[in-house]
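Before relying on records like the one below, remember that each one covers exactly one chain. Contacts with other chains, cofactors or solvent are not represented anywhere in the record.
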Amino acid sequence: MVGAGGVGDAAARIAVERDFFQTLVVADYDLGRAQATVAAASARRPGESRLVAAYVDASDADAVASLAREHRITHVFNAVDPRFVMPIFTGARAAGAHYLDMAMSLSRPHPQRPHELTGVMLGDEQFAQAADWERDELLALVGIGIEPGLSDVFARYAADHLFASIDELGTRDGANLVIRDESGKEVFAPGFSMWTIIEECLNPPVVWEKDRGWFTLAPFSEPEIFDFPEGIGPVECVHVEHEEVLLMPRWVDARRVTFKYGLGEQMITILRTLNDLGLDRTDTIRVKGVEVSPRDVVAACLPDPATIGPRMTGKTCAGLWVTGTGTDGEPREVYLYHVVDNEWSMREYGAQCVVWQTAVNPIVALELLATGVWSGSGVLGPEAFDAVPFLELLAAPKPTGFGSPWAMQDRTPAGAPS
């Protein structure tokens, strides 16, 4: 596992409860952070000795490959932000290892018409190498976090078991999380990497439609109120660039695919201000003799998402809203979803709910791969695999499964057969 930040630390704490692996190398550019994750995770299971800490420079494909060879690694799990996708992806293949990630290679907007046409899309660089991975009989399982990840598994499940035809696959994420400072005052502190939030939310969002393919809109387009379950309630959601829209149409037949996220008015205002001021830029500028990236500075000024759990309350919900024709030939509308309460994740794992919810899904996938339930080669998304074993393993009570149930709401409009 490359990365011992919030998601990586949570993933190690989840994985240590399972028996499917022999060794888990936790690698990070900050060796002390990797060692702390190994110590915290190992302490959860008496006599645990399978976890090993190591240093790695995630920007160096050769370093990733060398570390994988040293430990005879079978799977490289990328748990860092998407800037490092390609070197880790390349290093894994060079070492003859399978690969998993939770975010795909970065996009670049169309140079002339960014809010109409796609440029380089998320994952394009990885899919361009699919034939090489297939020839080497290696699997790159891309987008297997929560979003993308579980939503993509839901898409496969809906197509195989719930619908005869699908009009829209609409990922909808929302939360009612609140973070407070030591005095109890509500503060701004994102639940995951601010670098990634800026990347996703200020890039032109992509939509897919069967009759026109992929196209783009302006950021924060087409706001809608979506009613989230389990007490979260109505949240305004807007289009955001996300991997689901680039993955689902490759394996699941639908007329339209979208991703909307409940950012909230405060987050949208902050993102627009950062963009207006040029503080979302990733290229470096010179400040008092030092070269700095404005976006790196913004991210560094905010609390580490791994540290905010004790000051956070509320729930986060990730899910897929699906409309179309049910297997009975009648109109159908469902919301498949997964909710995590921060109080629960902090109590059980010492991890805040956003990072825990992201981290559990690649560990479920790794277990399915290790046991041979899932297999394949090339560059594949979660939609390429049978959803049922994943959903059963995720929801089954411990120790058989991961004890994290998912649910489904039937939202077929009143008056329509359900």
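The longest strand covers residues 163-175.
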